[in-house]
Amino acid sequence: MSLSAKSIALAVSALTLAACSPERPAPYREPTEALSGEKTLEAATASGVDTLTSAGYGALRIGMGQQEIDRAYGPMPDTSSQVSDECLYYHPPRAPEGMMVMVQDGRLTRISLRQPADIKTDKGFGVGDDPAAIRAAYGDQGRWSLHAYEAAPAGYFTVWSDRVRPDDDYVEDPTARGVVYEVGGEGRVKFVHAGGPSIQLVEGCA
Q: Is the peptide bond before 77 cis (omega within 30 degrees of 0)?
């Protein structure tokens, strides 16, 4: 066999071996770690992450830093009212209508929904819904409490993750996650709050 023929034979063998060899799967990477900024937002939207959970919404994840929030949904507008240096409560410019974020000491601690938000929680409930249906869906996982400022039927229906007992008066564990359906005096959900212990705050950052 000539040198040229031998080279061709070796090349064909190498290609055959490569075609028959199983491909190694690519290592798994969390989308929020692999992407950042607007790309993360696009990936979250494309994957259908359009529900609010105790862990976050889309590219917004409870516990993320201010710079990550700014990259994903835009910086706090100059027209927003800053509560204090330690606590910000505002609507990010690229966030859905009716969505507010609470940032405490530079970290996202709460996401809130209000009119005209049409976003639902992972249980399928949102602003304007009947609290009776919500309480029936969650059962003894949640806790009903009286509203701080409005008379019944206003109140709060709070659902925490498994690590928190539903009857705990006030949760301080920063790793705890939950959802609060705040019902107004007209008997419908007025606000939805999701995130850490700050979902218990009844007047903005206080």
A: no
pLDDT in tens, 11-30: 444 434 344 433 433 332 33
Contact criterion met (CB below 8 Å) for 125 and 181: yes
Cis? peptide before 25, omega within 30° of 0: no
Full 3-state SS string of 97-156: CCEEEEEECCEEEEEEECCCCCCCECCCCCCCCCHHHHHHHHHHHEEEEECCCCCCCCEE
pLDDT 10s digits, 108-156: 999 999 999 999 999 999 999 999 999 999 999 999 999 999 999 999 9
The Cα–Cα gap between 124 and 112 comes to 15
Phi/psi zone of residue 128: left (φ > 0), alpha (ψ -120 to 50 degrees), beta? left
Closest CA to 184 of 157, 160, 153, 159: 153
Among positive and negative, which fits the CA dihedral 60, 64, 66, 72? negative
Q: Are 193 and 111 in contact (CB under 8 A)?
A: yes
User: Tokens 């212990």 label which residue?
Assistant: 197
CA angle 21, 7, 2 (to 5 degrees): 145
**How many Å separate Cα 52 from the centre of its chain?**
6
Return the structure tokens found at 46: 């494309």
**What span, in angstroms and rounded, lies between the C-alpha atoms of 169 and 185?**
23
DSSP-derived secondary structure letter, 159: E
